[in-house]
User: Fold Succinyl-CoA:acetate CoA-transferase from Myroides guanonis.
Amino acid sequence: MTKEDIQLDRIKFDDYKKKIISAEEAANLIPNKAVVGASGFTKAGDSKSVLPAFAQRAAKEDVAISLITGASLGQTTDADLAANHALIRRMPFQADAVLRKSINNSEVKYVDQHLSETIEQLQCGHIAPVEFAIIEASHIDENGFIYPTTSIGNSAYFAAAADKIIIEINTQVPTSFSGIHDNCVPSKYPNREIIPIQTVKDRIGENFIRLDPSKVIGVVFTNILDTPAQLSEPDVKTTAISKNLLKFFVEEIEKGALTKSLLPLQAGIGKVANAVLTGFIDGPFENLTMYSEVLQDSTFDLFDSGKMTFASGSSITVTEDCYHRIIDNFETYKDKLILRPQNISNAPEVIRRLGIIAINTAIEFDIYGNVNSTHIGGNKMMNGIGGSGDFARNAYLSIFVTQAASKNNNSISHVLPMVSHVDHTEHDVDVLVTDQGLADLRGLSPRERAEVIIENCVHPDYKNEIRDYYERAKEKGGHTPHILEEAFNFHIRYSETGSMKPQQEK
Amino acid sequence: MTKEDIQLDRIKFDDYKKKIISAEEAANLIPNKAVVGASGFTKAGDSKSVLPAFAQRAAKEDVAISLITGASLGQTTDADLAANHALIRRMPFQADAVLRKSINNSEVKYVDQHLSETIEQLQCGHIAPVEFAIIEASHIDENGFIYPTTSIGNSAYFAAAADKIIIEINTQVPTSFSGIHDNCVPSKYPNREIIPIQTVKDRIGENFIRLDPSKVIGVVFTNILDTPAQLSEPDVKTTAISKNLLKFFVEEIEKGALTKSLLPLQAGIGKVANAVLTGFIDGPFENLTMYSEVLQDSTFDLFDSGKMTFASGSSITVTEDCYHRIIDNFETYKDKLILRPQNISNAPEVIRRLGIIAINTAIEFDIYGNVNSTHIGGNKMMNGIGGSGDFARNAYLSIFVTQAASKNNNSISHVLPMVSHVDHTEHDVDVLVTDQGLADLRGLSPRERAEVIIENCVHPDYKNEIRDYYERAKEKGGHTPHILEEAFNFHIRYSETGSMKPQQEK
Assistant:
């Protein structure tokens, strides 16, 4: 088939064939100041041509949009949009260095949301409605309905809510990559329905995204792979974190609190979470399942090892090797996978019902178990809270992992007297893990937590000073002893000297 | 009937008649160091004789227990237990000055939990199991099952989980006070069921608490009313808070975001929440409903005014006048009420499904919308988080109210650069209200939030200094501008001088 034949073969709804346009033409259809809802969740299934074309348009023309996605985008899209001043507002998540700079200098208004809540807030009218949707699809059926690719995110809602829709058909994704999607849109208050998911395998929606074809104003073809995940090899610290956590699970099994299947796993994105999940391959685990947001390489390694039987998520974000492994062997994985909208993958209702074991990465945590997932130095946004709060609050076990200390000569301690920003409160954190050890906080009062966190999790270079803080704070009394005059001394010292260590030790 | 006849008439299960004992005898059956689960939720339906008798026993004997309740207790029970060193651990809530002192000097290990989560943590084995239960009931049926009184709290779970049970029959509560309870116990993981509540009126359990009669080791009679709620008359500030919030609801109705029935209301305990609810009587509202924890006088005033049609909670905590109004007119209220276990009244699943409007009281909040509900000065526990987190996280609207400033000469500002303890993060707070005004934070970035909070909510005596902090923090940049060196200056000044105002202004 010619390129054109291949393209037309992906559109079974004739009316759309007249609407095929270029990415540039599509980008020109986006009204200035529009609220745009775009597919894409941690680099998977994002708009690879239209949003980049809009960034190029903004380089030449004074136009900007408010952009809502599932989560972060691939390529350099967020960077290019930010660099060209094309973003008014951005939500609910991002992970790009250029955009981050624009957020931190207040050029872009970033609204950092629990990933389950964007649809809630849109549907309730708490935030301005999505006018314009851009959704990546693999193909279009006879009804004009679209088949999503490697993520669902908020796409089903955007398609239902937007007045105008651009479909971006990615011919890199085979049309056979289908059957794993489960799309639905929640009913409005006061008639919200039960989410009838009782196991990780339960399907409640449709494989395609339903939409009103008259809203489709353009179909754009692209042929670009998802930006691959960059997974660095586990290092000494991530391996130690993984071992500490796996030992905990083995002990929970030994004491009868969990079976060898544990309970459905959720894991945040990144190398620590990936190392922990990969570690399950060698342990006494069997018939593991996931109910998570992002399915990474480790999920497919667990399938291949026979340790995992099913995984539910909102996106597949993997390395290029793993991507081809999935596509080439799709029939073997197909029955073990579901991709869901993020208001379902991250639904508090389902997370509590299934009893999820949630493993997420902290930027820093404090001696009482409060966790900072978003800010550096109390004021600078890093990436955003993502789904960590959706899971941590409602999980069977809420686990946060981080290195005890990092950077040159361990100049940053990630365990501190007080976190400089709280994303997960002491009420919502069960287990903390660093390369130094693990603190099981369940059922402990704040002072008991401080003892076990300082003893088990703090890097040796900081242990004396943090213990000294805690001992002196106790003299002032209180349920949660603190010395407010000194609570941020580590952060202040870092901002002044580039190290959290006292000057003589640097 | 004689007193004895009246008592025996309340026990339809003959085996228990042999088990009638005194409160002192029952207190002597509680093993030293036992984990005791006791009924009682915000002073309603608590153990009025056995726990007080245990406190007396502890005055003479070296015994102590870990005590888990629904929420706070009535009479001076928590105070007497604390004063007599009878508590090892206490959870999930308390509101007593004497106990608070013991918590803050670390004599009692207090675990401050989301009220929905105590049963979760017990059932998962995260905390030590309940061995001994003490549950207030109005009567006992032919199967030995018990009928709770003015609260349910965690009682149904305690009865199912404990090895030994003392039933405390309160003859002050008429046996006709029945039919409004809806008891159930969640199934264990991995077979947790859907909570099939789709409207505030839905019943999913049984009117009685099921238990194994062989576990009942004593039946104690009491004849003591619930400690009445003390409701002070609305003052200038609570009235202003109420007016500001009611104006917001009227505007939401006018713009079509809500109907005159709003959505089911939850309100925290206390005079501000009560004033707000009472304020609904005079507004353009109709067919209001509640899905809350504590039903206060205002609920019954709303019934009587015809403005409210149904209320679901976990306890009825009212003034003595209102208590008698309910008992004397029970038939008129009976079909409008359900009392539920607190893992159901506060279930994240149900709160999000019903779309609750949650109104809770803050101790303080900061310019970015973080809320402190528990600690004074960063270290001293006040009462606990209660159910505010269960509701705030999952509500349709999460609203926090407080006075802009309080105490002599408004020496305490309740709006601050940074809260000294975070219980509800910026991600979970939609609307903040003080007597000065209302800040609608929906969809705003942190800097936008700061502008509206400083402009609308801060007391005039503190406005210049807080604005100055914010303006100087902005010069340092960041998504959430802060000056960590000064973030707690208000708290530090208060602890040093007794006022948050600079010395010259005191």
User: Anything to note?
Assistant: Chain B touches chain A through 78 residues (CB under 8 Å). The mean pLDDT of chain B is 96. The first helix of chain B runs from residue 3 to 9.
